[in-house]
Amino acid sequence: MRKESLLRLLEENRVDGELRDLVEAAVASDNEFLLNCAGRLAAVQDLRNQEFPFSSSEMLSGGVEVGRSYSGFPVRLDEEGLNQHLLAVGQSGSGKTTLFYNLYREVGVPVWFFDLKQDYRHLSQNHELLVLPWSKLRLNPLRPPEGVPPRRWAQVFSEMFSHSTALLSGSKNYLLKSVIKLYQAYNLFECVSPPYPSLFELQALIEADSMSYMRKSSNYRDTVLNRLEAMTLTAGTVFDCSQGYDLEELLKRDVVFEFDGLSRDVQNFLMEVLFAYVFEYRLASNQRDSGLRHLFFLDEGKQVFSVYKERQSASGIPEIDELTAKMREFGEGLVVGDQEPGKLTDSIKANTYTKFLLPMDDRRQFDEVADSLNLSERQREFAQGLGTGEAVVQVGNGSPVPVSLDDYSLEKQVSDEDLERRQADNWTSLSYEPRSLTPDFKSLVAPGRSDEVENPEIVEDPQGELDLSGDADRFLKDVVENPFRGLTDRYGDFPSSYKGNKVKNMLVDNGVVVERKVHTQKGKRKLLQLTEKGRNYAESELGLEVKRRGRGGVVHRFWQHRIKDLFEEMGWSAFFEKFDADVYVNMGNTELVVEVAMGDNPREIKHVEEHLDRFDSVWIACRNKEVREGLRQRLAENNLEDDRIVFRLFREFNSEQLPQL
Predict the structure, then answer these.
(1) 72-109 burial by CB neighbour count: b if 16+ within 10 A, else e?
(2) N or C: which end of the chain has fewer CB within 10 A?
(3) Contact assessment for residue 3 and residue 18, using Cβ atoms and an 8 Å cutoff
(4) CA distance 117 to 93
(5) Buried b (16+ CB within 10 A) or exposed e, 374-396
């Protein structure tokens, strides 16, 4: 009877695969040990089917296979249902990336991956993929999509920029007004045609917006300018164009956008503006479609769909939440993965038709998903025991289904060198248009080198006029007279560090100074940088003469001083700002200049080109390796590769290493 029961279980549950082989071997051999093993496994199989009862035909109508049920039958999703979005949640290493690999292999529409960890370049071994590291991308987010009115795109751009960089409504409105003013200077309201302004022109326009620093709007200006400069400094090559790559054409291709190495704000902005670009293009072209036309893949979904931003009432309902619900009308599907569903917006959880629960150790995060799937207590107990590559999937309001996900084998990892070799032809085939200035824009903004390299981040809404204490005035005087003195040393002027820190916080909270960090060989040092408001107060209320030796923010000027002092310690003559260089050094028979590069900014290339005509050597002191590589690429693109150009990182400027340089 025992053998007959096992065989009956095989047929009733239509068991296939290794379990069937084991049961048949046990029955045929009459081996007691095998019969016991097969019996236990078959009982587990029967229990699973009781916990998750479903008709296997429910999952067989689609063409996108994701794995197999525990009975051995294929589990397939309907491709058309993917335009209603898919959410996969599970801890790191649970199988989300493998699931995404298989979904990509199965779907028959073009896809875009937003890749934050270089996970998807490896698919180029088996598929025709265009892989675009951010340093290879050219995108002008201020160019309206085809058919989209500039005034509408100005609003969409402002919404996306503000959401991704956490701007509140006052700063967002200031940004919108600036974009409209910029579009007017490019005559885009009369004729939507090239040239288009870039983020660099927007930054220059806002920098030229002079206003009283006692007005609230000046704080909006400084806040927007701070975010903009962070964009252009860290990802300048991306935005250095009038027209970027043809996104309408890229919608016909499988593309991996690699954003690894960029700051979170820049990553978020690029992803959100690309989402918006595609939606607005489809809307303007009236490309409504009931089926799936194109698919986005996004791991680390909470970066874009952050519940904290969704609940930030001062900034309103995020536009990205609205897009999630609207884009399905145009055949745009979204596949989102994350490890922490509790940090995802309610919108993305409510607007995903298909949900995957993979292994999760965090009980609170597990309950978040289990509640959305309406799992029973027994189903929850089962789901808590999921292993790597196992999941519970629910489509619409259907029953949850346990599934063993298909594996996906890759030959090897694709290195940067491999990628360069594989993608060289793809990159060469892409074209973009360089930036161009209109006469109206030139009349608004004087051309030339900006004096500001690093702008302060001001609190958005400081209240009332300044009313500082005597201790704060004394502290501020020390900042003016000793700009490169570290915070720890300044606290030594007070009875305790606590007292010094309290006074410093008063200055920061009132928008008089901002904190900046500088990394030296001896460790980190915190500096204080005067804002315009602080400079005005020091001059008008304290009667101080505020002198600033060197260009830009306090970190930029710190390194100008450090580099100048080091060369002088070696017995050479060094000067600030001579011959329009950050530092000029005369070694007797040799002249060299040093440019201090805080970011990957195109204006540095112009300076290098000018210096090469006059000096024996041009040194570029770079804040970090990313800045160095970005500037090297810009030099190559401008045919300015020259043995006289020397790159050095900030940390390489010290008295021990300088003699070897």
Answers:
(1) bbebbbbbbbbbbbbbbbbbeebbbbbbbbbbbebbeb
(2) N
(3) no
(4) 13
(5) ebeeebbebbeebeebbbbbbbe
Spell out the residues 6+ positions from residue 117 whose beta carbon is closer than 8 angstroms to its own: 260, 299, 300
**What's the rounded Cα separation, in Å, for the pair 245 and 653?**
39
Closest CA to 75 of 354, 387, 353: 354
Q: Residue 195, preceding bond cis, omega within 30 degrees? A: yes
Which pair of structure tokens corresponds to residue 389? Answer: 């590559």
Structure tokens at 310: 């969704």
Output the DSSP codes for 285-322. Answer: TT--EEEEEEEEEESSGGGTSBHHHHT-GGG-S-HHHH
Distance, CA of 380 to CA of 371 (rounded, Å): 9
- Report whether 500 contacts 494 (CB < 8 A): yes
Query: How big is the chain by its Cα radius of gyration, in Å?
Result: 30
- Residue 607 and residue 581 in contact, taking contact as beta carbons nearer than 8 Å: yes
**Cα–Cα distance for residue pair 221/460, rounded to 1 Å:** 9
| Contact present, 333 and 323 (Cβ < 8 Å) | no
DSSP string, 92-156: TTSSHHHHHHHHHHH--S-EEEEESSS-SGGGGGTS--EEEEGGG----TTSPPTT--HHHHHHH
Instruction: Express each pLDDT in 540-592 by its tens digit.
Output: 888 888 876 556 788 888 999 989 988 888 888 999 888 888 899 998 888 89
Q: Is the pLDDT of residue 453 over 50?
A: no
Determine the pLDDT at residue 54. 45
Q: Cβ contacts of residue 298 below 8 Å, gap of 6+? A: 114, 271, 304, 334, 335, 336, 337
Residue 39 exposed, middle or buried by CB count within 10 Å (0-12, 13-18, 19+): middle
pLDDT digits (tens, 9 = 90+) for 16-28: 555 556 566 666 6
Three-state secondary structure readout of 170-199: HHHHHHHHHHHHHHHHCCCCCCCCCCCCCH
DSSP-assigned letters across all residues of 599-648: S--HHHHHHHHHHHTT-SEEEEEESSHHHHHHHHHHHHHTT---TTEEEE
- Residues 252, 78: Cα–Cα separation, whole Å: 21
Burial class (CB in 10 A: 0-12, 13-18, 19+), 61: exposed
- Tell me if the pTM is above 0.70: no
The alpha-helical segments, DSSP class H, found in 235-361 are 236-239, 247-250, 264-284, 307-310, 319-326, 346-350
CB–CB of 13/43 below 8 Å?
no
The residues, any chain, with a CB within 8 Å of residue 616's CB and separated by 6 or more, are: 590, 591, 592, 644
